Amino acid sequence: MDLENDLITKYGACYRTLGVEKWNKVFSEYSQNGAGEDFPSFLRNQADSLKLPGFMGDLILVEEAYHQVRYWKELFLDPVDSLTVNPTVQLLQLNWKNIVPLIVPEKFSNPPRPVEGEELVMIWKNPSSQLTRIKVASSRELLVLKILVEDIPRKNAAAAGNTTVGYVDIAFAGCINSGLII
Description:
By secondary structure, the protein is α+β, with helices and mostly antiparallel strands. The chain has one domain (3-137). The protein contains eight helices and three strands, in the order ααααβαββααα. It has helices spanning 3-10, 12-33, 39-46, 56-70, 100-103, 139-149, 154-160, 165-178, and strands at 90-97, 115-125, 132-136. Strands 1-2-3 form a three-stranded antiparallel beta sheet, with helices on one face. Helix 1 (3-10) packs antiparallel against helix 2 (12-33). It starts with a helix and ends with a helix.
């Protein structure tokens, strides 16, 4: 396979978003002037001069992370003593909303267009199904991640959040079922 086909395979959402004509211009510029620079960096650094949509930097960031998680090689064979964050989890803070539908368009019948605004996107590989998951982070998922990362007792987290321990337990159950925590 040649470099262009490799890039189209890896960055399919960027290719679909730009269209063939614009992609050809970007690839030509990268081939001529991007020596020594990885494609995502080149795309982010040259976005203005190539007149790319403002969200392209976030799109390629998410697509790169999605690719890394999708091809995660380590197996989840080691048992864990206590609940922990899945080691494949990538949490990305974006400056544009609605990037996820560009990555997995088959999951959206009428995908919204990207708009400026902060959004947290999570990407991880479910250890049971080995499927790569991507979604906008919910407040429940962020709560669970914070509890685990900062080692906060569930009771204390519930009190600080002015909620019940039951709510926290339900949030944990959802994260366990999705493979976000193991």
